Amino acid sequence: MELVWIALSAALAIGIPAIATAWAQSRIGPAAAASLAEKPELSTTVIIMIAIPETMVILGFVVAVIIMLRGGGAAAIG
Amino acid sequence: MILPMAKLRILGPRARLPATIEALQDTGLLHFAPPAEQSPVRTAPLSPRQARRQRQLGRVLQDVDVALESIGCSAQKGAGIDGSVPSLARHARLALRVRREAQGLTERLARLEEERALIERYRPFFAAFRALEAARGTMPDLIAYHVVLRREQAGALPSLRSALGQILGDTFELYTQALASGEVAALLLVPRSASERIDRLLAETRVQEIPVPHGYGSTLADAIPRMLGRSEQLPGDLAGARAGLEQLSRAQGAALAGTRATIHDQLARYDTLAQAGVTEHAFVIEGWAPQAAEPRLREVLATRLGADVVVEHLGREQWRAEDAPVVLSNPKIFRPFEMLTRVVPLPRYGTMDPTPFVAVFFPMFFGLILGDVGYGLMLATGALAVHYRSKPGTTKRAVARIAGACALFSIAFGIGFGEFFGDLGRRWFGLRPLLFDRGEEVISFLMLALAIGVVHMLLGLVLGAISSARTAHPRAAIGRGLSALMVVVVLIAILAALKALPRAFLTPAVVVVLVTFPIIVILEGIVAPIELFSNFGHILSYARIMALGTSSVMLAIVANQMVGAMGSVVVGALFALLFHLVNFGLSLFTPTIHALRLHYVEFFGTFYSPGGVRYHPLGHWTPKSETTA
């Protein structure tokens, strides 16, 4: 049973930030496309802007890994 | 680094101003600065004669540009021509003549191409209708309809024939031939008196009569042989028109390119003339040149203008508040990385050029994320291929060099992590990690990523302190320095609290934090604590190195496991290869984006001061200078 909670916590730790990242990128994407249509030279800046919300899912991933390792979930699953 | 600049003031008799500007243009070293508002000198507007000449030159330049464009010589460099009025007038007439001739030839080429395209559209019908026309024989009272039935109408042919029979009995002939496109060409011969009824029938059945192109006769029967004749002549006509354009380009391209360069130079001198400060009898020009180039500039002016014109070096204290133009100059090994720093606006003069730091940390971050000998070798091969196919000084060459550096770091970290296409190296030739196994020791990798983040952020804060000290902002310099100290001390306190460091460190670290914090707030204001906390957020952001690195190695391991999981070894190996290729593609894109982001957002945020003015000295015009200006 404990394993289920560990797995669920890890899934939520990465799943919720992933949704947040997706939502943020969905807002940045159209704005980036509009900017690029007017100023194609902004392409690198735009790519960086799109990458900024990925911090959330990356930190979520880190937390998920820590939950798995500290909770002993990895050994149990492995 | 940012080249040190010298601010120069050039003074002389007003009559020598044009000659001085010409000499300065030949050196190509001085970036002009208009006189300050509080300066006792004023700028003199161009005289009516000069203004008129400037307008004339602008118009001639338009003609020359259009002429060069129409003969395909826009990018051609040309040696400057004699800039006297008669010479320029002669070249202006030449530009007009070339422009007209080139436009005539271009229009002729367009017409011929159009005609060729038209004949090509009709070509499938030619063979069909020629055969049908031959079958028609000589029936003088009949008129011919050349029609084409589209693919979906081909089945309607029997009903068309029966409708024609109802209207005309047996007084018509219908010859048909299938075309390669699936359409059917049909030649319908009917008595002249029935033409109105046939027109109606064709309109009702939506059968399309092939229009006879203009200028080839009234019927398709007349037009076909003429069009065939023209199709044989057209290649020769087209070659003639192209040869005419090439000949014009060879004969006049260099002269017109030279004219363009000379006009641009003259216009630039007029612009500069309007920026120079003047009194009734003297002129004064101020501007910046790289410090190392100052002796050469002085020498040229002394040689060409003698003792009449004086160059004065202005001390840094006289222009500290002004923004000197910025020239980035880095060692050859770092120069390709200027491409990455140019994405953000230029740094202000007196601050730091981040290029050398980007040149070290960008490939390092890339290598840490990719960290695989196999992928690194693939990247190195690609980089070498691009390197040998590119010319020095081009963007392609810079990309190849950056990719080469990234490949070297990837291979080095790959050896450290014991990775060769994931765990393939371990399975095939017992490759063992020298640092740690990224797939297993996630926490070690996380600690390494965060430690690198701490080093990178501290370096940024120290650079910020140096930059503030250089630009005479001592409070900000001390504030940045203390922020760096706070980051270190807080980390020591956290590590001591977590027992990673001896507990004895905890109390002194807390005391230092409590003492330093109010000092930072006094020095940098209430924003300082927020910045301090954001620094810790930025350090945590370096965890992405571990997250992306781990996902990269996991994908590689999954690819290798496909060989055994697919049943057939061959199919498994193919899938594994495909998966490795996908992972390699991702591994090029992801580390680049995230390594750039760590620089632009986290690292630059601590010290980078954008808003530098691009160094744009008065010099001779080239086609390249227009695009880079």
Shape of chain B: flat
Structural class by secondary-structure content of chain A: mainly alpha
Q: Cα-atom Rg of chain B, whole angstroms? A: 38 Å
Number of strands of chain A: 0
Binned strand content of chain B:
5-15%
Structural class of chain B: alpha+beta
The H-level CATH homologous superfamily of chain A, spelled out, is F1F0 ATP synthase subunit C
Instruction: Write down the overall mean pLDDT of chain A.
Output: 83
Strand content of chain A: under 5%
Q: Enumerate the spans of chain B where pLDDT stays under 50 for 5 or more consecutive residues.
A: none
In the CATH hierarchy, what is the architecture of chain A at level 2?
Up-down Bundle
What would you note in describing this structure?
The complex is a heterodimer of chains A (78) and B (629). Chain A is mainly α. Chain A has a single domain (2-77), classed as F1FO ATP Synthase. Chain A has four helices and no strands. Chain A has helices at residues 2-38, 43-51, 54-70, 73-77. Chain A is elongated and about 55 Å long. The mean pLDDT of chain A is 83. Chain B is of the alpha+beta class. Chain B has 19 helices and twelve strands. In chain B, the strands form three sheets. In chain B, strands 1, 2, 3, 8, 9 and 10 form a six-stranded antiparallel beta sheet that branches. A four-stranded antiparallel beta sheet of chain B has the order 5-6-4-7, with helices on both faces. In chain B, strands 11-12 form a two-stranded parallel sheet.
